[in-house]
TrEMBL record:
It comes from the Bacteria. PANTHER family: TRANSCRIPTIONAL REGULATOR, MARR FAMILY, TRANSCRIPTIONAL REGULATORY PROTEIN. It comes from Amycolatopsis pretoriensis. Keywords: DNA-binding. PROSITE patterns: HTH_MARR_2. One of its GO terms (biological process) is response to stress. One of its GO terms (molecular function) is DNA-binding transcription factor activity. SMART domains: HTH_MARR. InterPro entries: HTH_MarR-typ, MarR/SlyA-like, WH-like_DNA-bd_sf, WH_DNA-bd_sf. This is DNA-binding transcriptional regulator, MarR family. Transmembrane segments: none annotated. Residues 4-135 form the HTH marR-type domain.
Amino acid sequence: MTEPDEVLDNLAQVSFAVMAHLSQVAAAHELSLTQLRVLGILRDRTPKMAELATHLGLDRSSVSGLVDRAVRRGLVLREASRDDGRSVRVSLTPAGVELARELTAEAARAMAPLTSGLSAADRNRLGVLLGRMLA
């Protein structure tokens, strides 16, 4: 296998492992992986519905259904946007904030084995490289 093929193969394998861990964490709380992503996105921002759809790569009607389910569970609030009365912003409720914290901690524990064989310097470097890939 050539080096670029090995990088691609390893990246795919790591992606699958991360998705499996995150799916297990979500399922333990009766959430889908996409609902987990919604809570993760809302941890540090209150986007408009259209912005949330862009973050998720989904159409607005799909996001509306996701948000409806989260509202029914008491995890998310919809509020009229202060800067644009036609828009709706989405934010976490206190229960949503608490669940997001819990999910973050569980995800960190679930994924720790993936990086446990790396030195602190390697983990830092991996974080930098992954950040550059996503930029």
